[in-house]
Every structure is written in structure tokens, then in C-alpha cells.
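Reviewer comment 2.1 asked that we show a complete input and output for one of the modelled complexes. We chose the adenosine-5'-diphosphate case, as it is the one discussed in the main text.
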Amino acid sequence: MRKDLHTESTLPEAPRPHLTMDELQEIHERLLRFSPDALIVVDEHAQIRFANDTVRDLFGHDPESLIGKRLDMLIPERLRGRHEDHIRSYMRDPDNRDMGTRISDLHALRADGVEFYAGIRLAPFRLGEKLFVAAAIRDMTERQRINEELVAAREEADRANRAKSRFLAMASHDLRQPMQTICLLNAALLRVVPQPDAGELLRQQEQAIASVTRLLDTLLDISRLESGAVQPQKTDAPLAEMFEELRSEFSSLAHTREIDLHMEPTNLVLSTDRILFRQLMQNLLGNALKYTEHGSVRVCCSLQAEDVIVTVEDTGIGIPADKLERIFDEYYQVDTHGTKRMGVGLGLAIVKEVARVLGYSVSIDSALGKGTQAQVRIPRQHLVRADLQRTDADAAAPCGADARKARVILVEDNDGVRLATELFLKFEGHETLSAPSVAEAHKLFDKARRGDILIADYRLDARHTGLDLLMSLRERLGSSAPGIIMSGDLPTVLRAMNEPVADCRFLSKPVDTRVLLEAIEELSVASS
Ligand code: ADP
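Response of the prediction step:
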């Protein structure tokens, strides 16, 4: 049988919902006298006309003793002048408001002379013609202390973060020099060691060197972006050209991984920072190829009402839905069962930072086991125009001319790097004249002849860059001598240049030896 709970209730009878007039009156009085905040009413001359009992606890004054006194006495002397001005302006335009939203130093004074941080809320009212203002006051010292601690902790965290970024930038920059030496020596050894086993070991070592180089690039990129040092420098950039550059950069990786890399033709021209845009796309495209085992990677672009959308789509392993939220975090990597980690977890953090700097937004959609789609949303005001369709995208592909042995003038102040480069170039069959300084380089220029290729660091000494040296060689020879300029911080160097330099390649240090050889080959073909 069902029991009716109400019939057996032992609860006391419910109280009457309405209070009597006397009870209500009593509550009003008590509320006013003992409210959690000290309550003070002043007239338009800032004279105290009422103070409740809580005023005694907060200020240490007998509330009765305050009646008729000026409000000033509850304010530290040093602040009275300013307070007077505030009261005058408030009385001209009274309304309900928090005092102190524009005053950081809102202090009140106790009877014993001790000051405290006050939180004050004002409410004006009229009795007949007379204006009064009620003030509810509370001690905010503790909250202020917590706020100050939070601000200090935040500043400390920001300082530590900036120090980390500076350290990473310096460390990744300074490690480039020795990495360059190792890289060149390894390439030279590969040339001279005849045993196949040793050759295989060196090739493995070459791959390890390439991963360290990539890591250094990534660390330098993220630390420069985070330190706020990167200011975009926009030019009109046809997307087709930028897609083409990416295609030639990634096609051999796609080929090795047997993935179909497809870049859709586009005729859109953006106003963007080419280097940053490329950095963003390199990371998205790199990920798409890294995390795809079979199938294809497609890059395309579409024009919508508000935005230009660039999409990088793959048929790869995908990302679990519950991990999508965190993939843009620094050093975050999805721990997908059965797949090995293939980076350090900074690629998408770089994408996020670059997008922030350029004013784009990036979103990633994914289906586990099916593929991933990254979309870069570029506000339409960055679109310059739509050019006529490029039909011959491959026209600019480098022609496969035979390698010619060039003579190189090498200027490098680091002994290790200079010797390693000399050795490497020698084993590749190039004659090298080398100089450890700008002064020595000028002496070598006496022997220079047309077609010689200058290879130099961008930053040579406090006054000279490799580019200055190339210009003086060109003056000396009266011709456009080819040059290869290397830098540990290539994006900054490229950004500092106003216009492109003909017959000059800019390479990032530590230089990829294959890229260096290709540049020498191209330049020697061009100057022959
Ligand atoms: P990582 O260096 O590990 O590639 P990223 O920041 O570039 O770091 O990416 C974070 C994580 O997001 C990666 O570890 C990977 O698990 C996942 N991820 C990013 N892009 C893709 C993609 N196209 N397909 C599948 N997983 C991806």
C-alpha cells in the first residue's frame, strides 16, 4: 500500500507568510542599524546626518558623535582636497555608483588614525527639496591585498615567460653555429667515406641533424612571436605564388610518403606578410603530411561574404574530438594510440601566434581515422584583388641544368664553420677562397673574377653585413656577382630588407647542405 507522506508529517506548522507591520518595522530598523556595511547619510554640504551602528565597528567612532560633523573627518588628511572635488562634482550629477572606479587610492580613516582600503557605494535620494546621499562602506583591505598579490603574481609570470622566450631565442640562435659545423662535416664525410655501412650511419646522422635543425627553427619562431618582436610587413602577395613555393618545398616529402599533394589554382591576391603567411601554412601543411599515412593532402582557397578561407585538408589519422580543444596549446601533443610522436607540439602554437599577429583566425575540424581540415579565415579587407588566372604554374620551376663547379669566396669568422664549409665545398668539387673577416675578404676581392659566388654570414661585424660585402664585390667587378647570404635569424633579415636583391639567395643557418648546393648550382648557371 502506498503511504501518503503528508498525512503522517511530524513537521512543525509552517509560519505565516506575511510579517506584521510591527515585525517589518523592527526588521527595517535592525537592518539599518546593524547592516553588514557601515551606512552613512550626508547632506549636500557633506555633513553627516546619519550613521548606523556598524560605523562603530568599522571606524571606531560612536555613530552619534559623528552627526553634524563633516565627512572629511573619515578621510585621511592627504586625500581631503581631492575628495572635496569629487563630492562637488558628484553633487552636481548624483547617481547610484561605486566610488573609486576612477580612484585607485580610495582610503578611509579610523578613529585611531589607521587607514584602510574602502569600498564605497553611493545612492542619492531627496527628502522634499533636500538632497541626501547614502554611502555603504566596507573594509576592502583584504581584497585589495589579494588583488595586489594577483597582479604581482601575473607580472612575475609575464616576466618569467619573457625571460623564457629570450632564453629560447638566444639558445636556439647560438646553437646554430655548432650545428652548422656538424651538418657540413657530416655532408663532407658522406662524400669521402667509401664503406656503405659507414655511409648509412652518416645518413642516419644527417637525419638526426635535420631534426635538431627543425627543432631550433621552431623554438626560435615561437620565442620571437611570443616576445612580441614580430611586426607584420605586408605586401601584395598572389596566393598562387605562395602555394607554388609551398608545393616545391613539400613535394619531395609528399612523394617520399606516397601522398598526393594537391594545390588548387587560385587567382586571389592578399595583402599579407609573405614570411609569416608561409610560416603559418608550412606548419599546417607539415602536420597534414606528417599525420597522413595514405591518401591525399589538398590546399584550396575560397571567397566568402566576409572572409577569404584557405583550407588544408588531409585524409590522415585525425584527432579525437575531446583533444581538439587543446591542440593549439604549447607543447601539447595528442597521445593517439599506436602512432608515434612526430614533433614537439609547437607547430599549432606557432600557427595560433602567427594568426594573431596577422589578424586571421584558424580552426581545425577532424574525424578520427578519416582526416583533418584546417581552415584559415582571412578577413576580406586583406584581399587586394583577384588576378587573371595563372595557367602555367610550373613555368617557374627551376630548370635542371647540369651542375657547374663554381668558385666560391667564403667569408666566415667562426673558424669551425669556415673549415667545415671549405671541406664540404671541396668534396663537392668547388674551389674555395676563404676569409675570416671583412678586411681579409677585401684583400681576396683583388683576385675575384666574374662568376665567383660570395658566401657570407649576414651579420659579419658591428658595421658590416654580408650584403654590404656583396655590394662592394659587385662594384669591384662591375657586374652582378652572385651571392649567398646566411643567417641564424633569416625572417628578421628578410624583413629588414626593402627590396629583393637580384642573384642573391638567403639561407637559414644551420644550412641544409642540399639547399646550399642547389643555390650554388642555380647561381652559377644564371651567371654563366
Ligand atoms: P606536433 O609538433 O606534435 O606536430 P602541433 O602543435 O603541430 O605539434 O600539433 C599538436 C598535435 O595536434 C599533434 O601532436 C597532433 O597529434 C595533432 N595534429 C595536428 N595536426 C594534425 C593533423 N593534420 N592530423 C592529425 N593530427 C594532427
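The pocket of adenosine-5'-diphosphate is lined by residues 287-288, 291, 314, 316-319, 327, 332-334, 342-349, 372 (CB under 6 Å). We note this here for comparison with the apo prediction described in Section 3.2.
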